[in-house]
Each structure stands twice: as C-alpha cells, then as structure tokens.
Amino acid sequence: MNNSNGLQILKPIVLDTADLKMLLPHRDLAIGILDEAFYNPTKNANELIAFKKTVPDDPYFIGHYPGNPVLPGHWQYEAMCLASALLFKQLHFGLIGNPAIVGTDGKMRFQRPVFPGDDLTIHSELIGDRIIPGKGAHYYFSTCIKRGTEKISFIEKLIGSFFPEKILEVIK
Predict the structure, then answer these.
(1) In whole angstroms, how far apart are CA 104 and each of 118, 131, 158, 161?
(2) Mean pLDDT, to the nearest integer, of 38-43?
(3) Is 96 helix (H, G, I), strand (E, B) or coil?
(4) Residue ranges of the domains in the chain?
(5) Cα 120 vs. chain centroid, distance in angstroms?
(6) CATH code, 13-171
(7) What is the torsion angle, in degrees rounded to the nearest 10, for the CA atoms of residue 103, residue 43, residue 53 and residue 105?
(8) Taking the model in full, what pTM does it have?
(9) Pick the catalytic residue: 64, 74, 92, 123?
(10) What one-character DSSP code corresponds to residue 106?
(11) Is 64 an annotated catalytic residue?
C-alpha cells in the first residue's frame, strides 16, 4: 500500500494520545475521548480501530446524569468522527491540511448506554470517496462503537471532506 507521497506503508501503527494531538488539531478534552488508535494497512488499509477506557472521573460524565452517569451521545459521535479523521490522515499521510467531518446521512443510532468503566472499541472504515480534481474530496465512512462484541452506537455513513490548503485560502 502507498500513502499520498508514494511511500509504501507495511507495518501496523499504534497511535497514543501524543500522536493523536499531533495529527488532529483539537482541544485536549476532545482528543481525550480516544486513548489510542491502531492502523494495520497489511490487514485492512481502509480500517482504523481506536480505544477508550472510560473511568468514573472522566469529564464527559459530569452532569449526565447525577447518580447514574452515562456517556452523552455527543461524545460518542465525537469519538467516531475523530477515528474517521485519523483513518483519513493515515490513508493520506503527509497531506497539508485536515479533514472536516461535515455530517451524516441521518442514520446515527444509539443502541445501549455507555457507563463509567466500559472499555470501548471504535471502528472506522472507509466505504467510498468522491474526488473532485483541483477542488477537494468527499469521503464516506461507516463507523461504530462496541463494548466487547456488543454494538453501542453506529453511523451508517459519516461524510467527511478535505480541501487542500490552497483551496481553503481561496474560500476564505
């Protein structure tokens, strides 16, 4: 498999929190929704798996709900978006600029609550793209969160876009 610079990527990659901060320009609170990510292009170049071990003092649980903390859907959505953005960055390593997750096809589902202490696995898979030469590209991801083998939440089609830096300057 070759990245966007034509370099061949053969080894699995484990990304820790410091790597995540370097690759994705987000606040610490948002980046903290993922503990680490794993990308293995020799197994499936279109898939990235991220992990989150929730703990009772995670700030994501504050006030939601007192006495019975549950991870809000917003943070589950954020975890799936970040995993998809990381996958994009691995597929196009070396590109200047960042992908923007712009929406879903409206089919986001929450099937079970997430509680403090849950070990979560976030799967993101590239399922398609539409490249517009000289303008940018749209990418389509299927993503879900699991606790063991139990599916917690999923998005059938997460839509991301990438616009090269020169095009963003024109848009501004």
Answers:
(1) 26, 18, 4, 12
(2) 91
(3) coil
(4) 13-171
(5) 13
(6) 3.10.129.10
(7) 10
(8) 0.84
(9) 64
(10) S
(11) yes
Q: Give the angle 126-128-131 at the CA atoms, nearest 5°.
A: 115
pLDDT digits (tens, 9 = 90+) for 138-151: 889 999 999 999 99
8-31 pLDDT, tens per residue? 555 788 998 888 888 887 888 888
Q: Residue 146: is it exposed, middle or buried by C-beta count within 10 angstroms (0-12/13-18/19+)?
A: middle
Distance between CA atoms of residues 8 and 1, nearest Å = 6
> Distance between CA 74 and CA 121 in Å, rounded?
16
Q: Which residue, among 103, 106, 109, 105, has the nearest Cα to 160 in the 3D structure? A: 103
- Give 132's contacts (C-beta < 8 A, 6+ positions apart): 138
Report the C-alpha gap between 127 and 47 in whole angstroms: 9
Sequence letter at residue 40: N
For residue 51, what are its two tokens?
A: 């992990």
